[in-house]
Amino acid sequence: MNRTISLLIAFSLLCIPAGTSLGAKSNDCKEIEHIFKTNVKQVNGVCKLGIMRHDIAISILGVSLSPDTVELGFGANFENVGDQTAVIGEFALLGSEVNRVIDTLRKGNIEISALHNHQIGEQPQILYLHFQALGKEEALAGTVKAAIEATNRK
Q1: CA pair distance 139, 78, nearest whole angstrom
Q2: CB-CB contact of 107 with 101 (8 Å)
Q3: Verdict on whether the full-model pTM lies above 0.85
Q4: CA–CA separation, 146 vs 90, rounded Å?
């Protein structure tokens, strides 16, 4: 009987995919959904936050385009790494919002990794801010939320 149980346990362990970390903290995105009060997609253990900016009417080459077409939004990906969480994100910002958002992210120990444009000649001009950090999930998500709230978004 003991041998049968041992064989069943051994066989069960062989069915676990390589690279699986037993007992590792699950990243089920519930905490992030709670903080942002929106649905968050989970893809391969990464919580993907995406909030489109419908508060800005944008045109390129004189043609009005949807926020989805020009990736006019706030995006952040959260992944548990050991006992910490990594966040990497990109925000589409108006020029008047950039300094407030950078200040907010830096106060929360989130590094700015890039600031650039994606298009030429869009109206109004949009700047894309990239950021990254490693820390506690709740603190990082709170800082990212505060940075979104520092924009003109209603």
Answers
A1: 12
A2: no
A3: no
A4: 14
In the chain, domain spans: 26-149
Residue with tokens 């709230």: 149
Task: Please give the full DSSP string across 11-75, using - where no structure is assigned.
Answer: HHHHTSPTT--TTPPP--SHHHHHHHTS--EEETTEEEEEEE-TT--EEETTEEE-TTTTT-EEE
For 134, the 3-state DSSP assignment is strand
CA–CA separation, 6 vs 108, rounded Å? 50
- Greatest alpha-carbon pair distance for the chain in Å reads 77
> For every one of its 154 residues, what pLDDT tens digit does the chain have, with 9 covering 90 and above?
545 444 344 444 444 444 333 333 455 899 999 999 999 999 999 999 999 999 999 999 999 999 999 999 999 999 999 999 999 999 999 999 999 999 999 999 999 999 999 999 999 999 999 999 999 999 999 999 999 999 998 7
The CA distance from 63 to 42, in Å, is 34
d(CA 32, CA 40) in angstroms, rounded, equals: 7
Distance CA 12, CA 5 (A): 10
